[in-house]
Amino acid sequence: MAEDLIQVAEEIQSTTEIKEIPIDKPLQDFHHHLSYNERIIFSAKFGDGKTYFLNKFFEVHKDEFEAIRIFPVNYQVADNKDVFELIKKDILIHLLANDLIEDEDFFDESIYAQNYLFNNGADIVFDILSDVPAVKVPAKIIQKSLKHLKKYKNGKVDSAESKRVQIENYLLKFEEDKGVAEYDVISELITRIIKSIQDKGKKKKVVLIIDDLDRIDPAHLFRILNVLTAHIDRDIILQKEIEDGVGNNKFNFDHIITVFDIENAKNIFSHLYGLKTDFPGYISKFISGKPFEYSLQNILMDYVFENLSERYGIDKNILKITKIREAIRKASVRDKIKLISGIEKEIVNCIIEEKETKFSSVNKFTCFLVLLKRLDLRIIDVFDDLLKVNKFCLFNLIGVNLYLGSDIVIGNDVIGIAVRLGSNNSNWSKITIKRHNSIVEDIEFLEDVGDIDISVLRSEVKLITNKLIAYVKL
């Protein structure tokens, strides 16, 4: 969806000079939010441009953050218990693909031992215990122990190979095995690599982004959330890591961002566990603050309102009346952007003469009529809502076209509008008339009009609109 914005903007750039929908304010807000939250839920509805937003954010702040992004949508075929292994696999693939791993020795003695025992523990126990009950000669036990010690030393040499090779061998397991149990050595390795990036990047922060969680099976969604909150995923914590300041997040990431629609997750949670379950309490474990809620829809709506107001002089209060706002909201991204382009081209450009006054047919009220036409609305459809805004806004919107009214008298600095249909009595208000040479460009009300019968307003607006429709191209 977000990519469509740029494509559409490029298509209409020659007429509207739109290059990109601005998201500067949300980018600033998210940077502030990220600065004091370690675990973040980035909440946005499907199609709201969250991927575009995050790409833009980490592009702008590439010197401050190293973003590692994974997409669990591919985990659909995996068993729930294997999800964490797949997360580790994707993290490693990203680290390899972006040359974030240097060939250094990340393993210490305990890691070598753990690796050896993980792969050979059963053989060690079987070899030693098989002889203890039957043979009383300690020499055989010592002999077999020495044999395993030799294997261990050889294994240590093997483990000292390039960690890139170790990682590639680990990844090959996914090609050979249908399911792999959590491998603590690899978890340890990822943690140390992340720490290395942080140290060598002059305290550059490393961020894990788990995107498109809306697309995965609900059981996987909650499994991933549970896994990410369990930072201690091994039995032994190295004292050196504690001294070096290992953080509170999985694998020592500075920030973990999970991307999904919080409201959708709430509905799924209630469906799975019942309406009375405490979703806020449950979800609070996975974030260090409130979810960051982002909506491209709202940004785009504000952008449309701002541009229509600036380009064509239509008051934002009028643009935001219920029927107009909802019609704009329902429009596609492409149609939303097109709303603000080329309105004046759909008006027959000429000079209108009325009551010895000349004004252009291209003005804010005729532009408003074109906007209604594009939204498949008529003036009669929004008249009541226009009155709810206030009559002051309505008359300023009609502007120079008030010269077309029948129960309206316009002087140099005042305007009179009949209090009732056919009445000679009028309510008078002060106005400013803007002229360019002999052409009246606009009429602005300096004060609200008095108490005027709604039937008068409806009649005048209908009359003026019917006269102007001839200038709006079909």
Automatic annotation (TrEMBL):
InterPro entries per record: KAP_P-loop
A Pfam family assignment: KAP_NTPase
Limits of the KAP NTPase domain: 41-229
This protein's name: KAP NTPase domain-containing protein
Lineage: superkingdom: Bacteria
